[in-house]
Each structure stands twice: as structure tokens, then as C-alpha cells.
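The instructor's notes for this session suggest beginning with a concrete chain rather than abstract definitions. Hand out the sequence below and ask the class to guess, before any prediction is shown, which regions might be ordered.
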Amino acid sequence: MNQPIMRDPMFLAVPSEKATVRDRQTALDLLDTLRANLDRCVGMAANMIGVHRRIIAVHTGFSQIVMLNPVIVSKSGPYEAEEGCLSLDGVRKTKRYESIEVSYKDLNMKPHKQRYSGYVAQIIQHEIDHCDGILI
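After discussion, reveal the predicted structure:
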């Protein structure tokens, strides 16, 4: 179900708790909300829909994926980026990495480890920051 977007910086600054199998509906709601906002958004974290769980949804350019408990296990190629956020006004500068490897679980709690690069890697880093309570 498409959910309203959280814009309270104090709420967004609270680190999220690990997701469990009971958070499947939150993950599905997050995907629905991302899809409803694709005209202005390429990624979301669960705290953006008011839930403090480590869940992100990312538009990869051709589809959307959801990650539960994502953790960046390696990164390389630092660069400075300028990003906006659906929950915040304006754009801000931040440090990102060109290539990352992410460990996460899918909707069925099956573990995955995947390498991402370029713009998709940047989106994932932004959303993991949300999970950690870090706002750009």
C-alpha cells in the first residue's frame, strides 16, 4: 500500500532496527510507495514511510528491488556527489563510492551478496544512510 512520506528530520535521524520476517508487509508497502513516486524518487528506506526498520527499496533503472538488513561489506572509488531526498528540501553534497558490495536478505529472508556500481550503488548508499539515521 502506498504510504505518506515522512518529512520530520528528528524521526529520520533515529537509526533503524533490524528487520525480521514479520516486516514483510512494511517491505511491500515500501515497494508500492517507491513505485508510486518514481517520477521524483529512485530509492526509499522504511523510515521514509514512518517505520524504523532496516529495509530499503531501490529502482535499478528497469525494476525495483527490496533489501532487508542491507550492509555495505566493501567499497571503492570515493567521489563527491550532490543528492536530493524526497523527505528533505534541496540538494546537498556527500561522499559516495563508485563500487560497493552489499550483503542483504530478500523478502523471503534468503541471504544475498551483490556488487553494485555507478548510480545504483549511489542510491543504495543513500538509503543505507537513512537506515543509520544519517541525513544528507
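Then share the key points. Residues 118-131 form the longest helix (14 residues). The two ends are 27 Å apart (CA to CA).
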